[in-house]
Amino acid sequence: MNWTIKTFDELTNKEIYEILRTRAEVFVKEQKISYIDPDGVDYKRWHVFAMEDDRVYAYLRAFLDSDDTVKIGRVLTLVHGKGTGTQLIKYAISELKAKTGCKKIIMDAQSHAISFYQRLGFTITSEEYLEEGIPHVDMELNL
């Protein structure tokens, strides 16, 4: 898999299509979340992803939340249990830190993925809450 980080303006038409296709496959079809995914904020985000055979297999988007904090979201993988998610997060942390000099990464994590993120060094910073009908917690990673 080839890992990439790009701003929206750097993405090709095919990459944009495949990102949206994969997000719909995971969030709408697999997780049955009923929402409009192209939410208008992709334009001002970094898009971190891996493609294989012209498909996006892992993805997240990120933005500078404050001077020293990056927020990530829309984290997904098409393949589960193969280490792809770990590779995605590690690549994203490295690249986002290099690009922004951030000292912290935050996210709204789905509760079922808490242990995954904790293995990568994230800690829980909130009580559980519902977002789009799915239990979430806030998490952060101090770099």
Secondary-structure element sequence? EHEEEHEHEEE
Low confidence ranges: none
Helix count from the secondary structure assignment: 3
Distance between the termini: 26 Å
Got a strand count? 8
For the biggest sheet, the summary is: 8 strands, mixed
Mean pLDDT: 92
Which structural class is indicated by helix and strand composition? alpha+beta
Radius of gyration, in angstroms, nearest whole number = 14 Å
What is the molecular shape?
A: globular
Content of β-strand: 35-45%
Helix content: 25-40%
Question: What attributes characterize this protein structure?
Answer:
143 residues; alpha+beta; eight-stranded mixed sheet; 3 helices
Describe this structure in words.
This protein has 143 residues and is α+β, with helices and mostly antiparallel strands. It has helices spanning 13-30, 84-100, 114-119; strands spanning 2-7, 46-52, 55-66, 69-77, 104-110, 123-124, 129-131, 134-142. Strands 1, 2, 3, 4, 5, 6, 7 and 8 form an 8-stranded mixed β-sheet that branches. Helix 2 links the parallel strand 4 (69-77) and strand 5 (104-110). The two termini are 26 Å apart.
In brief, what are we looking at here?
This protein is an alpha+beta fold. It has three helices and eight strands. Helix 2 links the parallel strand 4 and strand 5 (104-110).
